[in-house]
Amino acid sequence: MVIEDIFKALADPTRLRIARLLSAMELAVGELAQVLGQSQPRVSRHVGILCDAGLAERRREGSWVFLRQSEAGGPVVDAIQQLLAVAETAEPGFAALCEADRRKLAAIRDARESAAEAYFARHAGEWDELRALHSPDDEVERRLAEALADHPLGDVLDIGTGTGRMAELFAPHAARIVALDKNLEMLRVARAKLQHLPTAQIELVQGDFSDLPFADASFDTVVLHQVLHFAPDPAPALAEAARVLRTGGRIAIVDFASHDHEELRTRHQHARLGFGDRQMAELLRAAGLSASPPIALAGGALVVKIWLGKRCAAAPSPKSPDLEAAR
What we know:
Elements: H1 3-9, H2 13-24, E1 27-28, H3 29-36, H4 40-52, E2 56-61, E3 64-69, H5 75-90, H6 92-131, H7 137-147, E4 155-159, H8 165-170, E5 176-181, H9 184-194, E6 202-206, E7 219-225, H10 234-243, E8 245-256, H11 263-267, H12 277-286, E9 289-291, E10 295-297, E11 304-311, H13 321-326
Parallel strand pairs: 4-5, 4-7, 5-6, 7-8
Antiparallel strand pairs: 1-3, 2-3, 8-11, 9-11, 10-11
Helix pairs in contact: 1-4, 2-4, 2-6, 3-4, 3-6, 5-6, 6-9
C-alpha cells in the first residue's frame, strides 16, 4: 500500500461513504450504486480507485462483481475505519450521509432475504421430501458439532455451502469461514442468510469442489455437508479438500450411507447412492488423510453418517496410484 494512493482514495466524499458501507457487508457494484444513488459506471470508477489503493477488493461471481473491504490492508484499513467512525461523531453532514446509507443498506438486506425466501418457496417441497427420509437436521448438526469440538476450528472452508447453514453453525467458533458453492443462486441464498456476520469473518466464493480456487494449506477445517453424493467421482473432490488443508487439519464429511433409493438420482440429481465405510476410508487414505471411526445417525429410511479425516502430511498428487485405486 502506498500512502499517497491512500490519501488520494480518501479525498472524495463518495469513496469515504463506500469505505463505510464495505465495513458493514460485502456488496455488489449495482447494490452500491443503489445505496449511493449514483450511476453504476461512476460507482465503478470510485471502486477502482479504492481497489488500486489497497482499501477494497473485487471478486467476480458470474456476471456480478462484489466488493469487500481489503483483507490485505490489515491494520491500515482498521485504522481508517476507526478514523471514519470518529468523523461521523464530529461532522454532522458526514454522519447524516452515513445514516441515510445505512437505511438503504437495510433495504438491500431485506431484498436479499426476500429473494432467498422465494427460492426456498420454489424448492421447499423437494427438500421436505428428502428430509423426511433421514435423521432430523438439528440432530445431525449437534453430532457434527460434537465431533469437531475437541480441537479449534481455525480457518474453515464450507464446500458446497448451499443455504449457508454450516457456515452459520460454525461461525461463532471459527477464526473465519469461507463458504463456497458452484451455484450462483444458492450463493445468493447463503449471502442473505450470512449477511449478519462480520465481513472480516465470512467470505462467499463461487467455485467447484473439484478445482478449489485456494492455495495449498489454506484451511484448518473443511466441511462437506451433503455434497459428496453429487460428485460422479468423489476422489478428485477429496484430493482437493486435502490439498487446501494444513498439516493437522481436519475434514468432516456428512453424507448418506450406501442405500438403494434409485429415485434420488433423477429427482434430486444424486450421482452417488451414498457411501460405504470401507469405501470412504479408502478415499480418505488415498487423499492423504487418516480416518476416524464413522458416526452413524439412524432414524429414517436413509442413514446419515459423519466421516472425519485428518491430514498428517502432504497430500498426494491427484494422479497418484493410491488415488486412482480408490476410484
